[in-house]
Amino acid sequence: MTEFICKLGAPSGRVTEETHQATSENELRSRLAAEGYYVFSIRPKDLLRIRLGQAHRSAPVKADDLLVFNQQFVTLAKSGLPLQKSLDLLARQARSAEIGGILEQVRDRVREGEMLSNAFESTGRFPKIYCATLRAGERSGSLDKVLSQYVAYQKVARGFRKKFLSALIYPAFLLVFLVGLIILVDLFIIPKFTEFYAELNVPLPALTVVLITLGQVMRKWAIAALVGIALIIIALRAAGQSGIFRMAWERLKFRLPVAGNLLLKFSVAEFARTLATLLQAGTPIVAALQTASEASSSPLLARGVAEARKDVTAGKSLSASLRATGLFPDMALDMVEVGETTGALPSMLDAVADFYEEDVGIDLSALVALVDPLMIAIIAVAVGFVLVGFYLPLFSLASQVH
Fold it and tell me: Is the confidence at residue 267, as pLDDT, over 60?
């Protein structure tokens, strides 16, 4: 018999962590499910086995591969094809050898009698929300329906993220161009003009002297600056492993003048969309909050949702629990409260996500419209500053010749 550490949701809604003995993880899951528990996770008590399992865990499946696979999976599920036959076809027709191999592992586990959601979860390559959605579909007997809902969620979420990131590409390109321009001027233009004016032995205007001095300082301290930047990056990455530092950074990030509000709206929209998808699939509210917390890209918001989950477990309403965290906008909380009152919480959460996704898109477009000309103006000023600074002595020399 092997000892397992189990994170369980009791029928009363309380979440506990208990130790159970069983011959296998699959047997233990079946036993706990028959007793009415909602199984969040099961792991061996042996720390060495835990660490070895984590060490061998690979990167998540690519989002594009997961979307294509799920679209094919929905089609096969609706056609009434047996599950093992569907997995066999999906493994053979996978768009990459990597996901094909993973699906073969899942198929073999299902063939041995394991639940589909557990088989996917055991690979460690699929998102938590996906495994939770599959588990809800298995329990409700409507796997094709919940898969369709997940595909719709995946399309909307990926489209929103791509729109958010694509809006930042042009400003990032202008920033890189500006840095490259400064390096080019410092390494090639300033040294050439410095040698040229030294040979002519002409008096230099103050602006030209400033440019030459600045270039010399930059070249002298370039290596030290690069080493310093590298050390700062390493230090920040190391500090990022600390929960205290990460939370402090998250709080600072959300308090930034313009970007902070934008990032908060993005995180709220992401959470609302995830929770709505889980609830629509039939996942209990406490389990859905647990999964939504783990799937959140913001550690601060994830901790707030985890605290709210405890309050919901104790009997409080979701809107009151989220309001107590002090992280969510009032409008989102009011909409959630209306959804709870009317019994339409999943659809209201979808409306919250739609509202904030659209709001983020509008704010981001306005921000980019402001940043783009500002960056272009900075580049133009930098180029004009260099041109005027280095051509002033030539004008002075030409006037002396005349």
Answer: yes
For residues 3 and 45, the answer to whether their CB atoms sit within 8 Å is: yes
Question: Do residues 347 and 288 share a domain?
Answer: yes
List strands edge to edge, sheet with 2-9: 15-22, 2-9, 38-44
Closest CA to 337 of 312, 325, 320, 355: 320
**Structural domain for 33, as ranges:** 2-55
Residues 80 and 150 in one domain: yes
How far apart are alpha carbons 129 and 274 in whole angstroms?
Answer: 7
Q: What is the tens place of the pLDDT at every residue in 178-223?
A: 888 877 877 777 777 777 777 777 677 787 788 788 877 877 887 8
**C-alpha 2: how far from its chain's center?**
36
Residue finishing a domain among 161, 180, 203: 161
Residue 3: both structure tokens together: 């000892």
In contact, 281 and 117? CB cutoff 8 Å: no
Q: Please provide the average confidence, as pLDDT, over all residues in the chain.
A: 80
The pTM of this model reads 0.64
**Residue 15 φ then ψ, to 5°:** -100, 130
Q: How far apart are CA 95 and CA 84, in angstroms?
A: 19
